[in-house]
Amino acid sequence: MTTNHNQKFYEKTPDERRQLLGKQFGLSKTELAALAADASPAGNQTIENYLTDYRIPEGVVTGLVVNGKEYTVPMAIEEPSVIAAACNGAKMTAYSGGVAAPEQDRLMIGQVVLKNVANPYLFKNRLLKQEDEILKVANEAYPSIQQYGGGATGIRVRCPEDFVIIDLLVDVVDAMGANMVNTMAEAVGHWLSAKGQTVVAAILSNYATDSLQSVSCTLDFADIATDQLSGADVASRIADLSFLAQVDPYRATTHNKGIMNGIDAVMLAAGNDWRAIESGAHAYAAMEGQYRGLATWHVVGDKLVGKMTLPMAVGTVGGSIGTRQLTATNAKISQIKSAPELAAVAASVGLVQNLAALRALATSGIQAGHMKLQYRVVAMRAGATAEEAGLLAKRLAGLDHVDEQVAQQELSKMRKEQAHD
Ligand code: MEV
To answer: Given Cys at both, which of 32, 80, 148, 162 links 373, Cβ 3.0 to 4.6 Å?
Structure first.
């Protein structure tokens, strides 16, 4: 390889970049070969300064029933216990008919923000009167969406502090729609600048309050009972934990982290921008001024009832979705055909994920289940090969205390025993 020193880093080939970093940071031949082995031409077309594809494990949650239909949903996640918990939650809810997820209303919001408006409230009324003209400007900037039945459909105007904000409401059909909404918002921004207004920003809002998804489920006590605790006791403890997440932001954050474990993993496997969903979810969790748990659980008669509503501005077309073969394969597995269906299923995964976490917390504690799956990770960290990890994990499960050092000692014991066999 000849190195062209005048070339900027981003102009180099992935191999040149890897070699350069190899020299700079002392990467071994094996490390460089591993980076090269996972590299893909598509990845290099996608981002700047590309090196390789960073892979994480993908599995499926099975037996998830949503609106009476059974789903197998791909989830991409590195945390060992998430898919196991999702399957557990899916199974518990399926006994009593699964999750109900009414089809969401779906509009995205593009913000056009103005400042230095002489009389904001007078101007607001003028803008509202010009709604048709504003929508025309937006739709002319992205006409192709109208052939799919979408487009800019309305505006709202707000005046917080010294700003005037036009919320442009856009039906993006099955797309995530970020590019579309940004293009439309910028067009409206330019139109207003040309009229002498000072435009501060023209950009999509990820606080997708016009794309809310609600999910709910009702469980029989019998389906959540454990060997040690009656279903009624488990239900009442889950309801306590749910209340705790309404009043204590420290617990609410972890409660919601568990929900997003499931939703993010589905989003990633479906090629969606999971950061957009994350930020919208957390903003919604704080909409009353205090950050709260997104899902709530109540005992109603002899049932446990779970409910959750959150913004789910998801897509099944557009963005990076079409550029990855794996995303298309995952859509075949999930059999999800539209964005509203993806929103319903992903939110349902979030709800059952929360159920499984709260039930574990309310009964044996999280670590009991987690550690069984964690042992494999500890085994790998201690240097076990993929073949050795299963056996070592079993041996670790039988010990009172496990950490990386213990796992290393156990691994060398295991290897010695195997050498003698
Ligand atoms: C771990 O990733 C998520 C949990 O902590 C969620 C929760 O506590 O509700 C188990």
So the answer is: 80
Which among 271, 287, 278, 263 is positioned nearest to 101, based on CA atoms? Answer: 263
Number of domain units in the chain: 4
> What is the spatial distance between Cα 339 and Cα 315, in angstroms, rounded to a whole number?
5
Confidence band, pLDDT 50/70/90 cuts, at residue 4: low
Rounded average pLDDT over 412-421: 89
Q: Are 193 and 199 in contact (CB under 8 A)?
A: yes
Residue 264: name the closest of 346, 188, 199, 189 by CA: 346
Q: Domain of residue 416: give its range.
A: 369-420
Distance between CA atoms of residues 52 and 37, nearest Å: 8
396 and 278, same structural domain? no
Q: Strand pairing of 69-76 and 164-171?
A: unpaired
Residues 290 and 345 in one domain: yes
Kindly give the interhelix angle for 339-362 and 366-381, rounded to the nearest 10 degrees: 100
Compute, in angstroms, the gap from residue 53 CA to the centroid of ligand 1: 28
Report if pTM > 0.85: yes
d(CA 96, CA 81): 24
pLDDT tens for residues 76-105?
A: 999 999 999 999 999 999 999 999 999 999
pLDDT tens-digit readout, 323-359:
788 999 999 999 999 999 999 999 999 999 999 999 9
Residue among 366, 367, 370, 377 whose CB has most ligand 1 atoms within 8 A, to mutate = 366
- Structural Rg of the chain based on CA atoms: 26
**Of 257, 337, 394, 413, which residue is the catalytic one?**
257
Of 79, 223, 233, 278, catalytic:
79
Please check whether residues 229 and 359 belong to one and the same domain: yes
- Rounded to whole angstroms, how far apart are CA atoms 289 and 152? 30
Report percent pLDDT > 90 for the chain.
86
**8 Å CB contact between 61 and 87:** yes
